[in-house]
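This part of the workshop introduces the protein records we will be handling. Getting from the letters to the tokens is the skill we practise here. An example says more than a description, so a record of this kind follows:
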Amino acid sequence: MAGLAAACGSSATPATSDHSANGQTPQEQTPSHQAPDATNAPPASTRSLESVPASGPVTLEEVARLEIGRSFAVTGGVINSTPYAFVGGAGVVRAIDLSVPEAPQVVGEIDVGNGVDGLFLDGERLYETDSVGSRLRIIDVSDPASPRELGFGDIEGAPHSIFVQGNRAFVTDGGGRLWVMDVSNPAAPGELGTVWRAGETHGVFVQGDYVFIGDALGGLRVIDVSNPTTPIEGASPRYAGGHRGDDISVQGDYAFVADGAAGLLVVDVSDPTSPRDINSIRTTGEVNGVFLQNSYAFVIDQAGGLWALDVSDPTSPREAGFVHTPGNTEDIFVLENYALAAYVTGEEGGLVVVEVSGPP
């Protein structure tokens, strides 16, 4: 297992101090290994869903690969005591039974007409964003074998990422705007408020009264939504990357930003009105997604890699595990002790299931 070495003397372009909130250049790290060639997962015995270890090194092992076509978004959860993944791409959202992780089965699907950009599962309701149709769609998945649309709301622009908290959905539109939607009536979601600043908005995460947005032009944006009808954006400093901000996860005082060629950025948001860059971690490709589980950040990149980083000390992340994934890895979700990755290879793609286990 290769470690994440400090980038002093490396060929990676260091983050510039111009974008650091405290005027100092954040630390930057890079993995020392290259991704191995892809192989099909070997047969494995049935394993039950458990939980990701608390900290330390882990083993990442691909246990299944389901080829279902180009896949761009994935989420998951337990419905009626059965674990499911929901995968979207090419105008279709599929429900996949994970009760036997080594043999995932498509049990249901729903045609959503256009592309699938974002998915968020909240209980037995699945929220889907569609940048082509400019819609937020709400789907009842109480019976995953027969998903049915409950309703949709129109959103100007190209809806991208989504995060749901209670009766509110927070949607980025790719054009600098955050939409706050009332989803208390799933048959007719409606706008509560919006906030706009010139930019290219992508990832979104909500913690308490604050919404964190990744903006390819403006960096990490923090918006106060304590009054959802009038969201207020602070003077968020631009973070060190500012390349894409495709995905964001926040845990406690730290935000982890998947920022393309800039890698994974770690930002101190203990004061949401004044975020501070503290670290930057490079992988072998452009970082597309990040998902936090316990003390780990699970990171995917376009080079076909899935990393587990131990972030128990966010100021000094350490590589805890790695596995190669096929093609372009587009999205990541962790359900119990399995990482689910949506991927695209040319005109094909699908879902990779990776078991996360502790040291022997």
